[in-house]
What does this fold into?
Amino acid sequence: MSNLDNLYREIIMEHYKNPRNKGLIDDANYQSVRIKNPSCGDDITMQTLIEDGIIKDCRQVATGCSISVASASVLSEIMIGKKIEDALKLADNFLNMVSNKGYDETVDLEEAMVFNGVKQFPARIKCASIAWVAFKDTLK
Ligand code: ZN
It folds into this structure.
């Protein structure tokens, strides 16, 4: 395993142990979407608060494997403050990256790059993707 893989793994485990923006807000202005992945027991709820086309807040509750929990945490951190159009572009690019489809390398995936290795493990693609699919659904 390369040093970069080790670093990525450390960051994923750190988010798994200390998830950011955890806990849902009881406020009708927040949009919530929950998705489960029965094959691995992952259960993810993403929440967003949009104002003037900007993601003002992003909350999450995730239980399951380290990849799915860390993915929800990294996503929530990255997306706060982004314009909706930039957030959707980033999310689509992330989903293409982890499923080993061509993605636009000029789009900065920021800390979500740590999931780049997931594409080598087809069983884990869904784990890495759930939070991002749920997040996109909150913006509809
Ligand atoms: Zn999983």
Notes: Residues 122-138 form the longest helix (17 residues). The longest strand covers residues 42-51. Residues 3-138 form a domain with the Sufe protein. Chain: A fold (CATH 3.90.1010.10). The pocket of zinc ion is lined by residues 37, 40, 42, 64-65, 67-68, 127 (CB under 6 Å).
